[in-house]
């Protein structure tokens, strides 16, 4: 039975999918048993390589994920996939689509696919994603792949979360989307131009090459040679080289001590975001609305309002 946190923790550490799913559900539902499971399994995490796959809507990220998973399985590696859905306007219905695209792995116990809604959170990459990453990691998946959609904050969040970030571009998109956000361009560890079967592939490849060249010049301390790879995911082409590059990046990170660094940053970020959420909720519950209304009416400026809320909070905790 999967009723107690101890039982769920024990069985998910043994790799049981049902136990993992239960833990993720508890965490999503903010059931306190979820936090208990997390505290039991946390010491066993930190082994999986978290790989973020991001790029413009419709770039073929899910199709590519599917062929990458097949390639990893061929190499005997176990993979957890988190497809962050999109309450985004670009991707209505993507969850169903992802299930179909990745359905050939549905019966493979070495693959765990999980679609998560972003629950309207600003930023998109929800707390649930971070939790699911930890659960997959504890379950012993070698790779945890996080697919995010979008052209906004999501992509930056995925970078914060991942050891290795794969940026997927495609021919034919305008510069405004393609000339990927400056932050992303700097953060991508591996670039892929997908839909290589389409017209315009060469031009896009050249454009990306130029951007990577400029980036290389701007970075003084060049240690990782960022690969630019070709894929035609819908035809099953390109997975081998990408999986090789992801493995090479892992070795590089391990060698440089950056694997642990990126894990540490992610853990810090998770703690801080939990604190931010909890504080904001508490502040609002206490006094927030009245003060916020005063700001809306321009009787109080935002800094003064924040100060007032924070002092009320600290008075309250001093009294407690
Ligand atoms: N021509 C061509 N089409 C492709 C290729 N890869 C994917 N597609 C098609 O592109 C469309 C979008 O693919 P998805 O894998 O859903 O793309 P995505 O980036 O996951 O999309 P969102 O998650 O909705 O942003 C589908 O119709 C795919 O069949 C490719 O290599 N060549
Ligand atoms: Mg997708």
TrEMBL record:
Keywords: Chaperone, GTP-binding, Hydrolase, Kinase, Nucleotide-binding, Transferase. GO terms for molecular function: GTP binding; GTPase activity; kinase activity. SMART domains: AAA. Residues 47-191 form the AAA+ ATPase domain. InterPro entries: AAA+_ATPase, GTPase/Isobutyryl-CoA_mutase, GTPase_ArgK, P-loop_NTPase. Gene3D superfamilies: P-loop containing nucleotide triphosphate hydrolases (3.40.50.300). PANTHER family: LAO_AO TRANSPORT SYSTEM ATPASE, LYSINE/ARGININE/ORNITHINE TRANSPORT SYSTEM KINASE. Belongs to the SIMIBI class G3E GTPase family. ArgK/MeaB subfamily. NCBIfam families: lao. This is Transport system kinase.
